[in-house]
Write a structure and sequence with these properties.
about 170 residues, alpha+beta, three-stranded antiparallel beta sheet, about 35% helix, about 15% strand, DNA/RNA_pol_sf, Reverse transcriptase Ty1/copia-type domain-containing protein
């Protein structure tokens, strides 16, 4: 199950048909911040977008891809936090996700009739991944045989004081 046609239309509509694809949906150790956080720390390098509708539309179109692309769910979970006041860095990060999708537009979910019905679950956390709130992100996926049946990336509702506490809360 994939959305190859939709992915190629998205890439074409944004004018990235001739651009270089990215290997990862988000940059390593790159933290997105809000306008309030930038004001608090005195950073004024990153400016607000003049038209937030363009960013909101792009993130909405990418959210539609999550149905068959669990590999971009963490990146979009981060990007969707800034729909109200998107900055240039947020738009740059969203464009990077599009360039990542360009690398393999036909990637999707494989549903197989496995001979060994085995239920597996995996989870991971990103401790204090949001600099302005210090909240952590939990991600999980569930497989039945070789088929992915459920996945999610979610910001934890409380602030954890350590990685161990974050891991415990994710269970």
């Amino acid at each position: 199950m994939h959305q190859r046609k939709y992915s190629l239309e998205l890439i074409s509509d944004l004018g990235f048909s001739g651009s270089q694809p990215c290997g990862f949906p988000i940059e390593l150790n790159h933290k997105l911040t809000s306008v309030e956080f930038d004001e608090h720390v005195g950073s004024s390098i990153d400016l607000l977008l003049k038209d937030p509708c363009e960013y909101q539309r792009l993130v909405g179109r990418l959210l539609y891809l999550i149905v068959t692309r669990p590999d971009i769910s963490f990146a979009l979970q981060s990007l969707s936090q800034y729909m109200h006041q998107p900055k240039q860095s947020h738009m740059k990060a969203a464009i990077r996700v599009v360039k990542y999708v360009k690398q393999s537009p036909g990637l999707g979910i494989f549903l197989s009739a496995s001979a060994s019905p085995k239920l597996q679950a995996f989870c991971d956390v990103d401790w204090a991944s949001y600099p302005n709130t210090r909240r952590s992100v939990t991600g999980y996926l569930v497989k039945f045989g070789d088929s992915l049946i459920s996945w999610k990336a979610k910001k934890q509702p409380t602030i954890s004081r350590s990685l161990v506490e974050t891991e415990y809360r994710s269970i």
